[in-house]
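Researcher: We're teaching a course module on how sequence relates to structure. For the next exercise, students receive a sequence and then see the predicted structure as tokens, so they can try to spot secondary structure elements on their own. Here is the exercise chain.
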Amino acid sequence: MKVHWLQHVPFEGLGAMESWLCKHSLSLTTTRLFANDVLPPVDSFDMLIVMGGPMGVHGDEQYPWLISVSGTILGYIAICFGYTIEFGGRDAFTDEFFIEESARGRGICSAVLEAVKSKAARYGVHFLHLEVAADNARAKHIY
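Model: And here is the predicted structure for the students to work with:
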């Protein structure tokens, strides 16, 4: 099996994955995005690993999808942008929204959604879609 991985920064490695891949004699190639390496043809590998880049609890301005309180990451939110004819312009979906169980019920979800609404408006979003599992009554109440 041929495995290719995308490296965003020079100090970011595969960690434990690299030794596992080598142990199993898998072919491993890299595209160093920070060095402007050329991406290989999509049919030249069987599996792609995309590393996320450097992020942490103090990067909430740079990495707003991480939700942190007092220096502790408690969750994340992913917003995907699109365009809607029905609502007349740019829209956005909450594709993922997760808060650690121990941090739920403290108003964090509501505060995050208010911040997302505010930021989305600055990006010209006309409509924000919120998705929730049908059996998640607690999340339905917040939304």
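Model: If you want an answer key for the exercise: The chain has three helices and seven strands. Helices lie at 16-23, 108-122, 137-142.
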